[in-house]
C-alpha cells in the first residue's frame, strides 16, 4: 500500500460518522481494492467466525487500519492494539474513537491476555515468544496468515498450532472460514460456500485454542460483500445427531426496510444438487421441475412461510423425487406467489444463459429463454419487464439499506439486467465450448 493510500484511509476514518465494524458509510467508500479491504463489512469475518472469550483482555499485534480492532473493541472488555506506524496508529484511533475499550500502543503494554491476534508480518520468533509469556493460563493466540510457513516459527517459539482453519478467499476479507473436515464430510456444500480456493489461514494456538472453534462446527460463511449492513448474515455449518445443519442469522437484526428484511433460518444438509444444476445436466426435465417448483412455492405460501421471496430455483435441492427449499433468508412483504414465481423464472433464465444451456435456441436471447420458461408454467412472456423492475428495486434496497435516494442505483441495476436480457445463449455456449477445446488441447500437450 502506498503512503498516499494510507493517508487517504486515515482521512476517511477521521471524517466518518459511523466507524462501526458494519459501517455502510465505510464499506462503500473505497475506490479500489487497497482502499476497500480495510473498510469492508467483512474485514473482521475471520474473528466473527470464532467463539471469542467473554470479558476478554485482548492484544492485537499489527492493527493496520483498525478493521479487526474495531470488532474486537465491540465484543471484548479490553483491547490493546499495537501499531508502530504513526499514520496507521492514527487511523486505528479514529476507527475506535467512540469505544472506551480500546487503546493504541507502539508495543505490548502489559500481560495476562486472554486472546492475542497476530498478523503474519509480525509473527517473528522473538515476538511470538514475548506473546506466549504474556498469555493468561488459558489464553489463546490467533495468527492470521497466507502461508503455512509460519507454523515453524510458532513451534520454535513454543506455540503449538492446535487447530488450522482455511479462509476463502483470504483472511483479510473472508467469505468462508472452515476446517478441512467439511471437504471430506460435505464436499458439495464446501464447494458451494467457498466459491474458490482458500488463500488464507487462521492458526489457533495456546491452551485456550480449542474453545475458539467448537468441535461440532465444520464451517462458518458470510454474506457481507454486496449487501447493506441490515442484510448481512452469517451461517454456521454444524454437526448434529442426524447429520449436519446450516444455521443462518443476521449479523445485526434490524427492522425491515420498505418491507424487505433478512431473518434466521435453519436447513438440514442434504447431499443433493440444486434445481439449476439438474436442469443443466438433464434439460429434458425442465417442465417437470418448473411445475414442481411452482407448486412448492404455492404450498410454502399456504403454510405461511415468511421468506418466500428466496424460494427460487437455485435455492431448491432436487433430492430424488423431493424438492427441498434451502437458504430462505430474504423477506419481502410486498411479494406473493405470482411475484416470487416471476422472480424465480427470471433468475433461472439468467443462470441457464450463463451456463450456455443446451436446451435453449442457439440464437435466442436470455429474454427469449425467460419467456419460454414462463410459458411452461402458465406465464405470459410479458412478465419479464415487471419482474425486472421488482428485482432492480429489491436489489437497490438490499445493497443500499434504504429506499430513499436510490433512484440512480435502481436505474443502474435495471440497466445491467436489460443488458443481460439481450445477450444470447449461443454466445455463452460458444465461449464454454471454446474453453473446453482449449483445455483439451492443453491436456493433450501435457501428455
- The helix content is 40-55%
Separation, N- and C-terminal Cα atoms: 42 Å
Number of strands: 16
Tally of helical runs: 18
The major sheet is characterized as: 12 strands, mixed
For the biggest β-sheet, the strand order reads: 3-2-1-4-5-8-6-7-9-10-11-13
Radius of gyration: 24 Å
Q: Poorly predicted ranges (pLDDT <50, ≥5 residues)?
A: 433-447
Mean pLDDT: 92
Report on the architecture of this protein.
The protein is α+β, with helices and mostly antiparallel strands and 447 residues long. The protein contains 18 helices and 16 strands. The chain has helices spanning 3-15, 24-27, 33-39, 45-48, 67-75, 86-95, 125-134, 150-156, 181-185, 187-194, 209-212, 275-281, 286-302, 337-354, 366-376, 383-400, 407-422, 425-446, and strands at 57-61, 78-82, 102-105, 113-119, 135-145, 161-168, 176-178, 200-205, 217-223, 233-240, 243-250, 260-262, 265-268, 316-319, 322-325, 330-332. Strands 3-2-1-4-5-8-6-7-9-10-11-13 form a twelve-stranded mixed β-sheet, sandwiched between helices. The protein has a two-stranded antiparallel sheet with strand order 12-16. Strands 14-15 form a two-stranded antiparallel sheet. Strand 6 and strand 7 (176-178) form a beta hairpin. Mean pLDDT is 92; it is low at 433-447.
Outline:
Helix content is 43%, strand content 20%. The protein is of the alpha+beta class and 447 residues long.
Descriptive terms for the model:
447 residues; alpha+beta; 12-stranded mixed β-sheet; 18 helices; 20% strand; globular; disordered C terminus
How do the strands and helices of this protein lay out in sequence?
Blueprint: H1 3-15, H2 24-27, H3 33-39, H4 45-48, E1 57-61, H5 67-75, E2 78-82, H6 86-95, E3 102-105, E4 113-119, H7 125-134, E5 135-145, H8 150-156, E6 161-168, E7 176-178, H9 181-185, H10 187-194, E8 200-205, H11 209-212, E9 217-223, E10 233-240, E11 243-250, E12 260-262, E13 265-268, H12 275-281, H13 286-302, E14 316-319, E15 322-325, E16 330-332, H14 337-354, H15 366-376, H16 383-400, H17 407-422, H18 425-446
Parallel strand pairs: 1-2, 1-4, 2-3, 4-5
Antiparallel strand pairs: 5-8, 6-7, 6-8, 7-9, 9-10, 10-11, 11-13, 12-16, 14-15
Helix pairs in contact: 1-6, 14-15, 14-16, 16-17
Amino acid at each position: 500500500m502506498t503512503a498516499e493510500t494510507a493517508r487517504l484511509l486515515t482521512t476517511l476514518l477521521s471524517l466518518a460518522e459511523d466507524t462501526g465494524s458494519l459501517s455502510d458509510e465505510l464499506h462503500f467508500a473505497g475506490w479500489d481494492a487497497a482502499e476497500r479491504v480495510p473498510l469492508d463489512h467483512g474485514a473482521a469475518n475471520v474473528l466473527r467466525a470464532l467463539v471469542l472469550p467473554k470479558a476478554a483482555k485482548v492484544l492485537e499485534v499489527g492493527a493496520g487500519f483498525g478493521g479487526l480492532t474495531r470488532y474486537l473493541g465491540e465484543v471484548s472488555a479490553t483491547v490493546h492494539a499495537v501499531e508502530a506506524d504513526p499514520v496507521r496508529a492514527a487511523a486505528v484511533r479514529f476507527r475506535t474513537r467512540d469505544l472506551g475499550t480500546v487503546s493504541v500502543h507502539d508495543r505490548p503494554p502489559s500481560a495476562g491476555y486472554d486472546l492475542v491476534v497476530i498478523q503474519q508480518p509480525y509473527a517473528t520468533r522473538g515476538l511470538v515468544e514475548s506473546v506466549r509469556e504474556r498469555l493468561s493460563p488459558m489464553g489463546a493466540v490467533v495468527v492470521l496468515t497466507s502461508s503455512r510457513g509460519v507454523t515453524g516459527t510458532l513451534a520454535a517459539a513454543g506455540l503449538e498450532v492446535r487447530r488450522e482453519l482455511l479462509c476463502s478467499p483470504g483472511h483479510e476479507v473472508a467469505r468462508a472460514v472452515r476446517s478441512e473436515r467439511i471437504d471430506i464430510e460435505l464436499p458439495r456444500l464446501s464447494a458451494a460456500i467457498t466459491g474458490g480456493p482458500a488463500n488464507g489461514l487462521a492458526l489457533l494456538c495456546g491452551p485456550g485454542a480449542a474453545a475458539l472453534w467448537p468441535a461440532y462446527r465444520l464451517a462458518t460463511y458470510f454474506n457481507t460483500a454486496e449487501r447493506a449492513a441490515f442484510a448481512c448474515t452469517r451461517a454456521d455449518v454444524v454437526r448434529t445427531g442426524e447429520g449436519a445443519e446450516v444455521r443462518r442469522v443476521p449479523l445485526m437484526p434490524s427492522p425491515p426496510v420498505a418491507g424487505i428484511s433478512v431473518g434466521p433460518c435453519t436447513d438440514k444438509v442434504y447431499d443433493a444438487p440444486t434445481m439449476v444444476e439438474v436442469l443443466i445436466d438433464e434439460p429434458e426435465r425442465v417442465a417437470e421441475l418448473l411445475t414442481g417448483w411452482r407448486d412448492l412455492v404455492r404450498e410454502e405460501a399456504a403454510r405461511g412461510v415468511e421468506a418466500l421471496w428466496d424460494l427460487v430455483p437455485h435455492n431448491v435441492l432436487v433430492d430424488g423425487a423431493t424438492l427441498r427449499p434451502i437458504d430462505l433468508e430474504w423477506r419481502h412483504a410486498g411479494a406473493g406467489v405470482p411475484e416470487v414465481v416471476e422472480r424465480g423464472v427470471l433468475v433461472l433464465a439468467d443462470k441457464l444463459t450463463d451456463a450456455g444451456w443446451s436446451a435453449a435456441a442457439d440464437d435466442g436471447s436470455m429474454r427469449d429463454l425467460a419467456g419460454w420458461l414462463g410459458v411452461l408454467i402458465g406465464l405470459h412472456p410479458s412478465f419479464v419487464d415487471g419482474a425486472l423492475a421488482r428485482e432492480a428495486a429489491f436489489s437497490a434496497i438490499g445493497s443500499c439499506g434504504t429506499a430513499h435516494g436510490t433512484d440512480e442505483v435502481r436505474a443502474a441495476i435495471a440497466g445491467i439486467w436489460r443488458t443481460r436480457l439481450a445477450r444470447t445463449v449461443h454466445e455463452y455456449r460458444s465461449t464454454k465450448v471454446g474453453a473446453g477445446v482449449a483445455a483439451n488441447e492443453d491436456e493433450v500437450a501435457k501428455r
